[in-house]
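Morning run. Coffee first, then this:
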Amino acid sequence: MPNKSKSPIKTTQDNRTLTEARAVLRGRSKKGRFGSLLPFLGPAFIASVAYVDPGNFATNIAGGAQYGYTLLWVIIASNLMAILIQSLSAKLGIASGMNLAEQCRAHFKPWFVKFLWVLMELVAMATDLAEFLGAAIGFNLLLGIPLWVAGILTGITTFLILGLERKGFRPLEAVISAMVGVVAISYVVETIIVKPVWKDVFYHAVVPSFDGSGSVLLAAGILGATVMPHAIYLHSALMQGRVVVKKPKEMKRLFHFEQIDILIAMGMASLINGAMLIMAASSFHLEGMTHIGTLEQAYITLQPLMGKASQFVFGLSLLASGLSSASVGTMAGQVIMAGFLHWEIPVWIRRLVTMVPSMIVIAIGLDPSQTLVISQVLLSFGLPFAVIPLVIFTSKKEIMGVLVNRKVTTFLASGVAAIILALNVYLLYSTFFGG
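And here it is:
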């Protein structure tokens, strides 16, 4: 098994949480079932932010507006895939003490490691572009300020959020989780307001169907906006140094608690994405407004349909999604650089550098919503280079020890990887060649 490495996520240790976690793992905790779970909740909520970022807003709203509830099953299937992939990522960090980028550096040839680093830096930039623009649009819609001012405000706010790293991993996890909660509550409110046709909702949640070639392309886009390369790299780093255990029994128990964390966080992400599509289907598709394709259009057209409250809630949810995912994207960038190159830069420098493309997009007047969609397509290039190495490493006994994949897990993960790759190839081909 490779030597354990120090996590590039620069949080000070939360001694109280670590003490409670170790007591639970050693069977010495006197707290109940829920109390025993609490010290382990958090990492999956940070990773799950990638699954409810502004790119998801764009694809889910377009899917609901154009095809009603038809593609709801795609969201459910995508999140089931995400649960498996994120479980493997977390397990890699726990078992090996190294994150996915570090494992790539340890096992691949130097030229390929450099290729992966460049590719994943481009992926991180594309991810940050979507997240930063989403938050800026949220400020713009809520406060009525120019988009360039909203961009500066977004940068300042993400600096403040990332500054929580110095206070320990718990405050950062709490703030990120609270923002995910804001998005969740916002869409609970939206769903109540729109009064969907629940019979159709439940049917399309479990019965796969399409409505023409356009819906297949959009389904691929929904998947591409859901399973994110940077979240796969990040989750392994979040787990590698959070609670360090060496005994096989404790390692298995730690992974069990992290699986619960993943199920809760990804389940919430699935409900949020489903609620986005349901809101768009109930508000726009059933009203004949199938042309709604941008976040600005969705925001403006909600007011006459559902009143000013829903308009405000939509803007607030977009802002929370953008701010939290922009912060998490910067953390993922740290992991990628440190893991592949063993080279780190201060987080504030990375935040400044990754703001530049977004501010350029704003300055030259490009359509922010269209830029969001393009960024999701760019992410498709990086996805195979996260999923395939993850499946390979977690299938090796010498790396994973007692947490090595079972044969059925490797089979399912390989199937998920094949499906993801096939849909992303279709998405890229259709985007560039009009297939």
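The chain has 20 helices and no strands. Good start to the day.
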